[in-house]
């Protein structure tokens, strides 16, 4: 099943209701699913390679703790934050100021991934610090998405609740 953006994210505790969570594609829901967003977001930073290293290691530690607690939703959300660290750092590496698309996000599409019909801005010369920060997050993201316990819990979650 695709990620359901029509849920009342302000009032759903996904730790209490994991059946309402869907993995979706990529980073879908990363800034919506509570209480995980509030637990992970304070550690998510990619300003420099040193900051990205500390951030990715902290988030990976949360990922391992969620796995140990058999909390797949938390582990998947931590995986999404690692992925988002990579994608956002890459965006800033390619686009000074982080603006990849022209114009504002339509009000009904806020919080969702994608350009929503907006044209992409031209790339700037690559920022080597942001590129290195992206590579740091990419390594941790790869480690997370290939972790044997994550793969086992993901399969069990999808068998129980659907994709």
Q: Describe it for me?
A:
With 163 residues, the protein is mainly α. It has a domain at 42-98 and 126-163. The chain has helices at residues 36-40, 49-68, 72-94, 128-145, 148-161. Helix 2 runs antiparallel to helix 3 (72-94) and helix 2 packs parallel to helix 4. The radius of gyration is 16 Å and the shape is globular. The mean pLDDT is 91.
What structural class do the secondary elements suggest? mainly alpha
Return Rg in Å. Answer: 16 Å
- Oligomeric state of shown chains: single chain
Percent strand: under 5%
Q: So what's the overall shape?
A: globular
User: Count of helices?
Assistant: 5
Give start-end ranges of low-pLDDT stretches.
Answer: none
End-to-end separation? 5 Å
Number of strands: 0
Mean pLDDT metric: 91
Largest sheet: none
Percent of residues in helices = 40-55%
H-E string: HHHHH
Protein name: DUF4385 domain-containing protein
Region (Disordered): 95-132
InterPro entries: DUF4385
Biased composition (Basic and acidic residues): 99-132
Helix and strand topology:
Layout: H1 36-40, H2 49-68, H3 72-94, H4 128-145, H5 148-161
Descriptive terms for the model:
DUF4385, single chain, DUF4385 domain-containing protein, 163 residues, mainly alpha, 5 helices, globular
Summary of the model, kept short:
The chain has 163 residues and is an all-alpha fold. It has a domain at 42-98 and 126-163. 49% of the residues lie in helices and 0% in strands.
């Amino acid at each position: 099943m695709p990620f359901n953006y029509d849920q009342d994210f302000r009032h759903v505790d996904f730790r209490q209701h994991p059946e309402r969570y869907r993995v979706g594609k990529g980073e879908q829901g990363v800034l919506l699913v509570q209480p995980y967003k509030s637990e992970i977001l304070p550690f998510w930073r990619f300003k420099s390679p040193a900051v990205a290293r500390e951030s990715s290691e902290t988030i990976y530690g949360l990922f391992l703790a969620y796995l140990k607690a058999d909390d797949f939703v938390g582990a998947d959300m931590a995986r999404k934050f690692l992925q988002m660290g990579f994608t956002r750092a890459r965006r800033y590496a390619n686009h000074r100021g982080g603006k990849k698309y022209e114009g504002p996000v339509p009000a009904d599409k806020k919080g969702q991934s994608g350009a929503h019909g907006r044209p992409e801005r031209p790339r700037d010369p690559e920022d080597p610090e942001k590129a290195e920060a992206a590579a740091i997050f990419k390594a941790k993201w790869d480690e997370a998405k290939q972790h044997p316990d994550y793969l086992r819990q993901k399969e069990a979650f999808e068998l129980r609740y659907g994709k």
